[in-house]
Design goal:
It contains 16 helices and eleven strands. It has 489 residues and is of the alpha/beta class. Helix 4 runs parallel beside helix 5, helix 9 packs across helix 11 and helix 9 crosses helix 12.
Amino acid sequence: MPELCRLTVREAAGALRAGQFTPAELDRDVRAAIAARDGTLRCYAWLAAPQEFPATATAPPPPAGERPLWGVPGALKANMATRGEPTDCGSRLLAPWRAPYDATVAERLRAAGSHFLGKTNMDEFAMGSSTEHSAHGPTRNPWDPERIPGGSSGGAAAAVAADLAFYALGSDTGGSIRQPAHCCGVVGLKPTYGRVSRYGLVALASSLDQIGPLTKDVADCALVYAAIAGHDPRDSTSLAAPVGDPVAAAARPARGLRVGVPWTLLAEGVDPDVTADFEATLADLRAAGVTVVGVDLPTLPYAIATYYIICTAEASSNLARYDGVRYGRRAGAAADLAAMVAATRTDGLGAEVKLRILLGTFVLSAGYHDAYYRRALAARELMRDDFRRVFAACDAVALPTAPTAAFRLGEKLADPLQMYLSDVFTAPANLTGLPALSVPTGLDRAGLPLSLQLIGPPLGEETLLTLAGETERARGFRARKEAAWISKR
């Protein structure tokens, strides 16, 4: 049998129920992998101690159909609360803080039989596209440790890709699940806004944030998504619509579905390897009976400008709570309250977070609110109108997840605009609240993973999973990864 940590969630869950090994043995195997590899990759910001392994995991398997994640360990991004454990958001400011409650997603995963290996590294307060802006230092891409794993959920994506977690949860505000999934060659789903509870998620931009899974394949994505989705009365934005059967949807053929492609967005700034892989993937979908048509989304070129106005404005408001008075780090001796607050934030927050707070404060300030923030809100409504029109004729929209494969560590740190453009294809789904999924499809000339992004109508997760499952079967990425990684093991 291969290393147990290399199994998918479904493979591990099936073998556990068949008695091929115990939950404790599975947990020990993945912890051994973490001990061997995470010193280089730095996927984890905090690891749960082995003695915290749940005693209930040694019990006999539950009946078929119950607790589908029984005995399978996962990981949570470091901005999701778990009672009594660190939830530092990759920031010095929250290093001493221990959450007094569990996030809804943590409760639901435990109810499904899972437990957590720890919290994964992230860009501080989820502000970044490379996981280089963390108090814990950068996470490295397991495909090439000299490259970024994407961000801000880079630790989660790298852990899943490197077999250091069977699945992980990330948060996605402008692409922070899908872009790391692209860079690391895993599946990442940003559900419809409100489909997964945000209770217990430390907010970056409240109208954009959404929790979703990062997994080794589409079937696992459907399984974990099914466990965490659904209404939560503790989240006022939570949707009450039924979740359906995501697992069955992932296995269905995609024949008869229609996919729209906004070709004009790929006219410039996209790496030729990305374009070639995207076109080859669309050809495979056509061969599987999917209709591919061109569509027009004229407002999408304005998505990055719109996104960074709205996101920074909401971030500057949300981060005002970190003042050293109520919780988290507090600066030492100061002349008065204002000086203490200033010193706390100066010492506790990193440069990228300060930059975005300043940008957000500027666009909300008197004299600029109407010129920037109000116009950005209007642009977001126009984007929603564009997508409504397209979805009247198509089941999903297809784009590359990112314009390039993973870039080198440090390559874009001196040029924030180029870093922000990493989200050019992902930000529209957050602005419009739409579900979007990244599925790996191929490798570029340097042997780095590439992917397809699928955007669906509101509550269209099942359609995305069906198309992603078809893409996965057609492209055979897992076999390509195994062949490419032989020398890495």
